[in-house]
Specification:
- By secondary structure, the chain is mostly beta strands.
- Helices cover 0% and strands 43% of the residues.
- It has no helices and 25 strands.
- The strands form 7 sheets. A 4-stranded antiparallel beta sheet has the order 4-5-6-7, with no helix packed on it. Strands 8-9-10-11 form a 4-stranded antiparallel beta sheet, with no helix packed on it.
Length: 330
Amino acid sequence: MFLSCVPTETCIHGAPTDKLNMATDLLRSGLAATRLDYVGPISGIFAHQAGGALVTPTGEVYAWGAFTNHWLTLGVPSWQLVEATPRKVTSVSNVRSVLGYSTEFLFISKDDSVLVTGRNNAGQYGNGTEAHLDSGYATVNISEVEHLFINRLSFFAIKKDGTLWGWGGNGYAMIDSSGQKKVTIPIQMMPELRFRTGCSSDDNQYRFVTEGGDLVVWGFNRFGMMGTTEAFVTTPRTVSLPRRVISVAGGINHTAMLLDDGTVVSFGSNEHGQLGRLLDANGNMIESSSTPVVASGLSDVVEIAAWRIPPLPSQGTGICMDGAITGCLG
């Protein structure tokens, strides 16, 4: 699902599957757009696979689609959300931004604290517990949060001081090397570094950008998408790039980076042309690359996004130029 935002409207693009928008008969392939039933001022939007959410300037949250339908047999709370049109999330208020996965919602409050609701089987609540709430929300044991990121059952926060914190599922020791499978209280990661941004993913790939513009990665490395030839990057490492990184976006098999000169480089799979260039300097087809590939014909880019979910081009890279801001996909 794809969301775009203009000053007073949110539009949804794509096929009407999973009750995303049952009120309008959309095309089931290609791009189609319809205005949602909610019309009003919007300060933020979010989309992932089968659902979406928006935040109003007053801090209210509206959500629609299906966020727990994949886990109906696993004891999810009774608030499970399968709604065809936006519904107000009454348990939270004063929200600055929202992020979600199939089974959890996370909210950054305007006081920079973090609230979470949904499953808690891997310590997603970040408060030392592993029991689900049947309604309402839990407060994560963290404060002064600027950005949130999700990777399956693992959650990450960049605080206002640039420190990176993680909690939740710790499979493959991706949060810490203690051997514990769950981190139920947020812990600081890479304390020697300060971070500016990162990107969410859903397949154990981790990508963050330091305040100095370095790209730090770890996790599964299909097709060289971590900027190396190793099959699995077990510990965080800095990737060598020609210029400072402004932002990073990740599809399931590729990574795209916006550099400080307004160009875009990528590495990983090029099965669908997602690296932005089909041929190398010798005229050979680029099937994949573990070294940066410069996207053809792009300059003065201000924002990038990447996705993996049809009906948009599979695993493509979305480019925003000249200040045109478009919503992102999970």
